[in-house]
Design a protein that fits this description.
ten-stranded mixed sheet, 3 domains
């Protein structure tokens, strides 16, 4: 292998010569190395005394790097994409110019924004003007209808926990809206929002959208209207700033990056390797971060055409063509490998060409992921994903209500909760979520996997925003009971009076309630003999009047849980009913 001089001035100052080969001595204790998978030559790294050596087939042991200082640790070999060098930036905005060039290159060479933006021109109701005057300490909240142009950035961040009974003072409220429109100071904002302002200015963009500033937080009408437009807010943004390393609004996300010294080396056939003191890991730095475990952030990330992730180890620019990691280095996945970045300029339109079963498996994993994410206000569970569901509805296209999709009605209705999850229904103050939607409850949910498309819809089932219309059945077989067999699956086995297994059941709430009498059959397995048939069902109970009486005459029911029944269970057709 031979060294290829690196243009980074930080490394050029460390240039020296060993055996006539230009190289740079890395003044760090533990060195970590990164070799791309495209390298065909086997490279062995090792440490002898205080030097790092490489050994290629048919060659003798030769030094790769110069004299090392620090403890004699064994080097770690990482088989990932080439990693960039980042200076130890001493000012907040020093990282921004390369990202500005990356955005300009994406504008000129990619179609990331054109595929994700709404067909019509869109602007949020308000935008934060980060440069209303020549004073860098001044800001102003502008009416977007009078804004200069339509380019803005959007911020994705964690608010953090508030003290009980207290709300953040920096929010826009009805009482300070007029003052915000006249102008206010940068010092009034917490550090994370201040950092976002500096980045916006550094990228040469005049406007920034921040939920807590651009939506009137104590005006229910304004909040409901603007929060439902999140689909377009992030899809129309020039780029999204992700404060990935900031656990709350007061911490900030600029400054403090570790020093990542590194250099490129090149084999005789021209293949490049990158050796760095800090091997970046996009999956750990971004996908496993605290920010990307928040419910609101899922649609913010999936709908954004481009995102800049400010992590504690690295700054990444993410678009539909890959990951920009600085210093001219791009990370891309190859066919057959895990897609480790989320942005897809054709999402969710790509769902139309993915195939019926494949599309459901993707949507299933998406909904399960969302349900596991944290959310400060449980009543935001429905609205925090509403923009994403609106996009899915347009892409398939089919009706989507409360996270349930008509194309996959029988599959998406067959959700279940964990048996140990004792959290109850969510109190939606301004709206109603029906009992058949997984959005009715707090906590994670799972859906029955059907990767091979073996579930066949059974009977007539239809739905709208308020009710599910279906044939209701009643058990005529006496002595059925649910038994907890001690398996940690959340399922209770169903036995008849003779001790025969009749299927299984998982309840949404109170597990001490009597065995359900009523059910709706949603699906059955395809291509099996009659005696082997299994039916996938929702267990129901009649809704009660205010006096506590069952409203059987109205044929109004609510969901109790779901499960599977053997095909020879004895049932009676009660008639068409509504599940609410």
């Amino acid at each position: 292998m031979r060294m290829r001089p690196c243009q980074d001035p930080l490394l050029r100052t460390k240039a020296t010569n060993v055996l006539g080969v230009g190289h740079w001595s890395l003044k760090q204790g533990l060195q970590r190395f990164c070799i791309p998978r495209t390298m065909q030559t086997t490279v062995h790294f090792g440490r002898v005394v205080s030097r790092v050596y490489y050994l290629t087939p048919g060659t003798s042991l030769k030094p790769l790097l110069g004299q090392q200082e620090g403890p004699q640790n064994t080097a770690r070999i990482s088989q990932s994409e080439p990693q960039p060098v980042h200076d130890n930036y001493k000012t907040d905005c020093a990282r921004v110019p390369p990202l500005r060039s990356w955005l300009q290159n994406c504008d000129e060479c990619h179609d990331c924004r054109s595929d994700s933006r709404p067909k019509r021109r869109f602007l949020p109701a308000r935008l934060l003007n980060v440069h209303p005057s020549g004073d860098p300490g001044q800001l102003r909240l502008d009416d977007a209808s009078t804004s200069e142009g339509n380019r803005y950035l959007a911020l994705s961040h964690c608010w953090g926990k508030s003290t009980a009974g207290q709300s953040p003072m920096w929010r826009t409220l009805a009482a300070n809206l007029a003052l915000r429109m006249q102008g206010f100071t940068l010092d009034e904002l917490p550090k994370t929002l201040q950092d976002a302002v500096w980045v916006t200015r550094g990228l040469g963009v005049l406007y920034l959208w921040v939920d807590s500033l651009c939506i009137v937080q104590d005006d229910a009408r304004d909040w409901n209207r603007e929060s439902k437009r999140m689909e377009d807010v992030y899809a129309s943004a020039y780029c999204t700033i992700a404060a990935t390393s900031a656990p709350d609004s007061s911490t900030g996300f600029l400054g403090g990056l570790p020093r990542n010294d590194g250099l490129f080396v090149e084999s005789a056939d021209g293949r490049a390797a990158y050796v760095s003191t800090n091997v970046a890991d996009f999956d750990d730095d971004v996908n496993a971060s605290g920010l990307n475990r928040r419910a609101w952030v899922m649609q913010e990330r999936l709908l954004s055409p481009r995102t800049i992730h400010f992590t504690s180890n690295q700054v990444y620019g993410e678009c539909g063509e890959g990951i920009y990691a600085g210093n001219g280095v791009f990370l891309r996945t190859r066919r057959g490998t895990k897609r480790y970045f989320q942005i897809d300029p054709r999402f969710p339109d790509r769902l139309r060409s993915s195939g019926f079963a494949t599309t459901w498996e993707f949507l299933r994993s998406l909904l399960e992921d969302y349900s596991r994410r944290g959310i400060t206000e449980p009543s935001d569970r429905a609205v925090a994903v509403s923009g994403l569901m609106a996009r899915v509805q347009k892409a398939l296209p089919c009706p989507v209500h409360h996270g349930i999709m008509d194309w996959y009605l029988h599959r998406s209705l067959l959700w279940h909760r964990g048996k140990a999850d004792t959290r109850g229904k969510i109190d939606y103050k301004s709206s109603t979520v029906p009992s058949w939607s997984w959005m009715a409850y707090e906590g994670p949910v799972g859906f029955l996997p059907d990767g091979f498309g073996t579930l066949d819809r059974f009977g007539h089932v239809s739905f709208d925003r308020t009710s599910l219309t279906t044939t209701v059945w009643e058990f005529t077989e006496p002595g059925l009971r649910a038994v907890d067999v001690g398996i940690d699956s959340g399922r209770d086995h169903i036995y008849d009076s003779k001790g025969r297994s009749r299927g299984w059941i998982t309840l949404d709430g109170d597990t001490e309630s009597p065995f359900p009498r009523y059910l709706a059959v949603l699906a059955r397995l395809k291509g099996v003999q009659v005696e082997e048939r299994k039916y996938y069902v929702l267990f129901l109970q009649p809704m009660k009047s205010q006096e506590g009486e069952e409203r059987l005459w109205q044929m109004a029911y609510e969901r109790l849980g779901m499960g599977v029944l053997e095909g020879d269970c004895e049932l009676r057709n009660v008639g068409q009913g509504g599940v609410f």
